[in-house]
Amino acid sequence: MLKTFSLGGIHPPENKFSAGKKIEVLPVPAQVAVPIAQHIGAPAIPVVAKGDVVKVGTLLAKSVGFVSTNIHSPVSGSLLKIDDVLDSSGYRKSTIIIKVEGDEWEESIDRSTQLKKEITASSEEIIKTIANAGIVGLGGATFPSHVKLSVPPGKTCDILIINAVECEPYLTADHQLMLEKGHEIMVGTQIFMKALKVDKAIIAIENNKQDAIKHLQSLSSAYPGISIEPLKVQYPQGGEKQLIDACIKRQIPSGKLPIEVGTVVQNVGTTVAVYEAVQKNKPLFERVVTVTGKSMTKPSNFLARIGTPISSLIEAAGGLPEDTGKIVGGGPMMGKALVNTDIPITKGSSGILIIKNEESKRKPVQNCIRCGKCITVCPMGLEPYLLMTVSDKAMYDIAEERRIMDCIECGSCSYTCPSSRPLLDYIRLGKGKVGQIMRSRTK
After folding, report:
1. Is the pTM of this model over 0.85?
2. Parallel, antiparallel or unpaired: strands 300-305 and 226-231
3. Taking CA 62 as the corner, what is the angle to CA 181 and CA 104, rounded to the nearest 5 degrees?
C-alpha cells in the first residue's frame, strides 16, 4: 500500500494539462523588473545604481542578516532605475528595473551542458556557495536554502527528503524537471547530503507521475543512499509536516521545524538550482514556470528569467482566453489572484493559472451548518470553522490557544465547505494578527 500522511487531506481534480510538455526556454524580454525581496526574511540591499551596466549573474542586491538571500541579474543591460513596483502580493515593493541589451553572462558561470558528477566542495563550502547564489525554496515558500542546511547546535539530521510531490492541481514544472533533469537532481541530492553530512535521502513523488518515478528509479542505482518513494496522491502532501509524516512517520511538534525530528526537506526544483550553483557556479536567476488553464490553447512549462512580466509567459502559451475571469500566481489551492499581467516572475513563481470566468466567481456565503467537514480534512488537526469565527471577532487569544499559527494555509477547509465560507481568508487574517502579537512579546 502506498504511503501518505495520517491526518486529513483531500483529492481535488488534478487538471495537469501541461504534463509531458517539454520545458521551453522563454525569449528574454526587452525589460525586466527584479524585486529585491523574493524570499522569506529581510529584503536584500541593492549594490547597484541607475546607469550601471550588468551581465547575467551580476550581483544586484546583497543579503542582510542570516535569513535573507542575494539577488542576481537575470539579464545583461543597463539599470534604468530602482522603483516601487506591484508584485504578486498586490503591494508595491522595491524593484530593480533593467533595460535588456544583449545576453552577456558573467564569465565565472559554466554554461556547458555536460553533467558534472564529482562533488569537490566541502560541506561548509557548499552552504556558502548556496547562500552566495541566492538559492531559496522553489516550491513557493522561498525559505533561504542555506538556512535550512545550517543545522543548529544540539540538533542532528539523519535523513534528507526531496519534495517532488507537486500536489497542487494544474502545476507540472517539477514533474517535467524530473523527466528532463534527472541526473542533475541526483547530483543535487548528493550535494545536499554532503552539506548535511547524511548518508540517506528519499525523493518523494506522488503516484500520478509514473514516468518520473520510473525514470529516477532507473538512475538511483548509480547514486548510493538515494531512494525513490512513490506516495499515494493526496493533497496537501507537499507540506513539509505532511511529507515527513508520509515518508518516515515522524511528527513535528507544534511550532517546530523539521530538524526537530532529524530531517531536512528540500524541493526538487531547488535541488536542480543547487546543482547548478555548486557545480556550475550559476546563481538563481531563472526558473521553470507552468502556464496553464482549462481554456489555454497551449498549456506549457517555460524556463523564464526572473523579472519577466507574466504577460510574456501568457502570450507564449497562446494568449489570454476571452473567458478569463481570474489570473492566479501559483496553483488553485494556495495561489493568489494577481492584479495585472505586468507583475514579474520571481523565485517563488511556480505557476500562472488562468481561471475561466464561470469558475472564478465565489458562491454566496451561507451559515455554518456544523457538518465538521473542515475539521475532517484539516491536515494539521485544527478547527477551521472556529478559527474563522474568532479571527472575525478579533478574539486573538483564543485563536492563538487553538493553534492558528499551525495552519499551513492549504485551503482544504475552504474547498470542502458546503456553505462556501471563506475559512482560509479569515484564518490568514487571524494568523497575521496573532503573529504580530507574538513578535511584540519578544521585543
Report:
1. yes
2. unpaired
3. 55
- Number of domains comprising the chain: 3
- Considering the domain architecture, whether residues 228 and 136 belong to the same structural domain is answered as yes
Q: Half-sphere exposure (CA, 13 Å, Cβ side) for 236?
A: 20
Q: pLDDT band at 401, cuts 50/70/90?
A: very high
User: Does one domain contain both 248 and 299?
Assistant: no
269 and 290 both lie in a single domain? no
Same domain, 247 and 328: no
Residues 218 and 155 reside in one and the same domain: yes
Taking 90 as the threshold, does the pLDDT of residue 273 lie above it?
Answer: yes
Q: What is the CATH number of the domain that holds 305?
A: 3.10.20.600
Of the residues 280, 306, 341, which one is the last residue of a structural domain? Answer: 280
Domain final position from 253, 280, 307:
280
Q: Cell 522563454 appears where?
A: 26
Average pLDDT, rounded, for the chain: 96
Domain range for 268: 123-280
Instruction: Kindly state whether residues 63 and 175 are assigned to the same domain.
Output: no
Strands 31-35 and 92-100: antiparallel
